[in-house]
Amino acid sequence: MEQLMVLASNHPLLSLAWVGIFVALIVVTILIKMSPIKQLSPQELTFLVNREEGVVVDIRAAKEFKSSHILEAVNFSMEKANKNDFTSLEKYKDKPIIVVCAAGMTASKVANQLLKAGFANTNLLKGGMNAWVGAGLPVAKK
């Protein structure tokens, strides 16, 4: 403990940076836990689709979608999402929606837009298609 105090006093900026990172991690973790949008694992996605007729909305480009996608997924362009044009998804409004992108980074933006548009049960696949393929789950190719 004494060495930690010496390190902190000799390197105050480095110590402050570590404290900042630690606090940021705690805040992000709390925000994720309190968010109305759940981050699902590939297994949880499968359960939601099979048990509650969840709908997978793939927001990747059409070319990527055609090369491989989750079975029965619906391709939804980012252009429509950016314009808040969710009319093609209205028929799924009462079902759980799972937003999927390539790595799980851009899906949160679209999931938030869907939530604001009235899609109450909106989720996203943590890790995106990379997590799905990494788990060895089946993909469709068109």
Describe the structure.
The protein is of the alpha/beta class and 142 residues long. It has 2 domains: 2-33; 37-134, Rhodanese-like domain (Oxidized Rhodanese, domain 1, 3-Layer(aba) Sandwich), CATH 3.40.250. Helix content is 50%, strand content 12%. The protein has 7 helices and 5 strands, in the order H-H-E-H-E-H-E-H-E-H-E-H. The protein has a 5-stranded parallel beta sheet. The longest helix has 23 residues, at 12-34. The chain is elongated. The mean pLDDT is 92.
Descriptive tags:
five-stranded parallel beta sheet; elongated; Oxidized Rhodanese, domain 1; 142 residues; alpha/beta
Question: What is the strand and helix layout of this fold?
Answer:
Blueprint: H1 2-10, H2 12-34, E1 38-40, H3 42-52, E2 55-58, H4 62-67, E3 74-75, H5 78-82, E4 97-100, H6 107-116, E5 122-125, H7 128-134
Parallel strand pairs: 1-5, 2-3, 2-4, 4-5
Helix pairs in contact: 1-2
Strand coverage percent: 5-15%
Question: CATH homologous superfamily of the largest domain, by name?
Answer: Rhodanese-like domain
Q: CATH fold name of the largest domain, please?
A: Oxidized Rhodanese, domain 1
Shape annotation: elongated
Task: Give the count of structural domains.
Answer: 2
Low-confidence stretches: none
Helix content: 40-55%
Q: Work out the number of β strands.
A: 5
